[in-house]
Amino acid sequence: MVRDDGEPDIYLPPNEMRAVLHKDRVKARIVRSDRKGRPEGRVLEIIERPAHPIIGRLLQESGVWLVAPEDKRYGQDILIPKSATGQAKPGQVVVVELVEPPALFGQPVGRIKEVLGEVDDPGMEIEIAVRKYSVPHEFTDACIAQARGLPDKVRPQDKRNRVDLTDVPLVTIDGEDARDFDDAVYCEPSTQGRGKSAVRGWRLLVAIADVSHYVETGSPIDVDAYERATSVYFPRRVIPMLPEKLSNGLCSLNPEVERLCMVCDMFISHEGEITAYQFYPAVMWSHARLTYTEVAAILSNTNGPEAQRRKALVGDLLNLDDVYRALLAARAKRGAVDFETTETQIVCDESGRIEKIVPRVRNEAHRLIEEAMLAANVCSADFIGQSKHAGLFRVHEGPTPEKNELLRNYLKATGVGLTISENPSPAEFQAIAVATKERPDAQQIHTMLLRSMQQAIYTPHNSGHFGLAFESYTHFTSPIRRYPDLLVHRVIKAILGKTRYHLPALPTPGEAHAKLSRRIEKSEAAKMKLSGEKPKKVSAELMAWQAAGLHCSANERRADEASRDVEAWLKCKYMREHLGEEFSGVVTAATSFGIFVTLDAMYVEGLVHITELGGEYFRFDEARQELRGERTGIRYAIGTRVRVQVSRVDLDGRRIDFRLVREGEEFMARAMKDKGLVHDGRGMERAPAKTSAKRAAKKASAAQSRALPSPIQALKAAVKKTVAKSKGRKTRRKS
Q: Which of 28, 100, 129, 511 has its CA at 20 to 30 Å from residue 579's CA atom?
């Protein structure tokens, strides 16, 4: 049981779990500590039981119908009366609605609400995930009707009071598989000021789709968009925040059509500093739809075939590259954290089966667009902050005191010459990353640096962005797929119009919202206690913005969890075809119960349980984040290379199990040799200890003296020999 106050989880024994379900909010009392030292509790009261549907497979056993939940955290099967099975057949995946809760001496009873299909149907993993995580996946009738009534193109009345940028060669740069284009860019050399005080640099235009023109506050489309808060991306499928007519049509900056946009028009100096900016609504005409691969090829070879095809745009792209280099230098100067991590992409065939898992390659064009978007986001946050208007900032705070102390201990234990202060800056993290990038354990160190940071959230309280080293930051550049960006657009328009934007009445917050709210409240209370500050009174307006930020943050987490769940399902199905096969991999996490290994060739992660590490006791070293064998001294830490065999795949539990083979055994043998042990293939024995020459001579002398019999010992031996001969003669006579 996870506690609201953030204290250690409470263990509920099986008998206590019979009357409760996963996700129930309960009141419990700690009654004792179990054998592992965990606080053990007793459920006193069920406070809240969310009306979540349960997804599982329909089974028939000895004439009894039941559903085995796909999420094993539910712990018990759901009984289904024969009259409540509907059209479902045994083995099918179904959605169950509870009609009777569980009891101490009785299983929960439910009825089948929806039949999803067979477990191996294409896309079944997505159908399960959207229901499991309560992701809205169908637009309301009112939303669809409103979207149907929208125009197919920009009308003359839509262009009023807008800057005409149709002659400016703005272009979109996205991935090959992108379907919606919400940003376009253009850059040209420019000078700010006159005479000797003139500053040379670039004029950078970032044009973003003007979703707020078509989605009015409180409209059916807006209500559905707010409920979703973000688009959810799965392999081969996207659940969009907005209806397709907007996301892929009217609001998408498609090439060679007029589109409405909000523009951040910036002047950037040669040092990468944004010295001036302005926002304005405009109408634009995208001159080309470019891909990251295409732009990277043009920038690397301006005489190549890609450059020849886009000859008219090469100069503009070179200007973009120049401003990107300046922004990159400014990023390094302010000490922003910059870790290169490997992101993967699942490639599926037409039936939805994984063909391969490949790393996403980030080239210079990706980074170019990223820096341009960061610049626009910074200007947006500054514009809202300067106007004193309430809005949502994208806040990323530094490590908590607990994580800070854990990281400092780790850096000390691993012999890194640098450490972090009590109140670290991003530059300290980046300095450690740069200083350790050539070390064999660089991956381990960088992973620990990343894990020490907190998750970013949306909030009206601006605390800056730790990772990017910005004092103020928000999201402005993706209103097609993120609701906070849409809110930022509305606030900017209100400021430009010298009015004030007011949030509409918001729906009741969900479970994820409440959970995140409790966590943030606890964090805020801890900061107040540490600083000695007293809680400040919050206005009704600010409370509304805080609720909106919590909602958007919680739904962002929900989308991430649903996406990871689908990826885990697909990877499990993929690895079922490789049971018994061996692969090389690297340890990506060490825990008290085993090590997680990611395969080199497939980018799939699985668990090597601690019982598979060998016949000795392994202790988890929290400071070093490693498992260490007590007898052999063998260590498994992040970055350790191993060879494993796929031993088990649990599709329902989204779990892949490995066991160590070959290199793992050789690794152990080397460690044992270093510790003075030998391995005979079946177990371990103590090897002969090395001794000094004097000690060896003494042992040899003692052994020799034991070998030479004394006179008394010789006499006893002679008597025994005579008696034995005498007995032998008597025996022969009797026979």
A: 129
User: Mean pLDDT of all residues in the chain?
Assistant: 86
Beta strands 605-609; 655-660: pairing state? parallel
CA proximity to 583, closest of 667, 642, 639 = 642
Beta-bridge partners for 64: 61
**Vertex 717 angle, CA 716 and 723, to 5°:** 90
pLDDT at 141 over 90: yes
718, 722, 728, 730 alpha-carbon torsion, rounded to 10°? -160
Beta pairing, strands 289-291 & 344-348: unpaired
Backbone angles phi, psi at 217, to 5 degrees: -55, 130
Task: Identify the pLDDT of residue 131.
Answer: 93
Q: Which residues contact 309 (CB under 8 A, 6 or more apart)?
A: none
To which H or E segment does residue 65 belong?
strand 64-69
User: What tokens appear for 414 in the block?
Assistant: 């691993």
Q: Which percentage of the chain shows pLDDT scores above 70?
A: 85
Element (H, E) at 483: helix 483-496
Q: What is the pLDDT of residue 725?
A: 52
CA proximity to 384, closest of 528, 520, 229, 496: 496
Q: For the residues of 641-683, what is the DSSP string, one character each?
A: EEEEEEEEEETTTTEEEEEE-THHHHHHHHHHHHTTEEE-SS-
Query: What torsion do the CA atoms of 706, 707, 708, 713 make, to the nearest 10 degrees?
Result: 70
d(CA 694, CA 88) in angstroms, rounded, equals 84
Distance, first Cα to last Cα, the chain: 84
Q: What pTM, to 2 d.p., does this model score?
A: 0.84
Q: Give 225-261 pLDDT, tens digit per residue.
A: 999 999 999 988 999 999 999 999 999 999 999 999 9
What is the Cα–Cα distance from 134 to 143, expressed in whole angstroms? 19
Q: Residue 72 pLDDT more than 60?
A: yes
- Alpha-carbon span 322 to 632, nearest angstrom: 56
d(CA 398, CA 455): 9
Return the SS3 of 2: coil
Q: By three-state DSSP, how is residue 337 classified? A: coil
Length of the chain as a residue count: 735
Alpha carbon separation from 172 to 84, 187, 215, 279, 286 (Å, rounded): 53, 13, 23, 19, 7
Q: Are strands 93-100 and 109-117 parallel, antiparallel or unpaired?
A: antiparallel
Measured CA to CA, the distance from residue 239 to residue 127 in angstroms comes to 11
- Residue 377 token pair: 């986001």
Mean pLDDT of 661-685: 52
> What is the pLDDT at residue 180?
86
Q: In angstroms, rounded to a whole number, what is the distance separating the alpha carbons of residues 554 and 544?
A: 15
| Cα–chain center distance at 590 | 17
Interval 172-218: pLDDT, tens: 999 988 888 999 999 999 998 887 788 899 999 999 999 999 999 99
Q: Are 480 and 219 in contact (CB under 8 A)?
A: no
Place of tokens 């049981």: 1
Q: Which residue has the tokens 């918001």?
A: 506
What gap in Å lies between CA 463 and CA 397, rounded to an integer?
A: 7
Among residues 207, 225, 208, the alpha carbon closest in space to that of 216 is found at 225
Strand partners, 29: 42
Distance separating alpha carbons of residues 639 and 645, to the nearest angstrom: 18
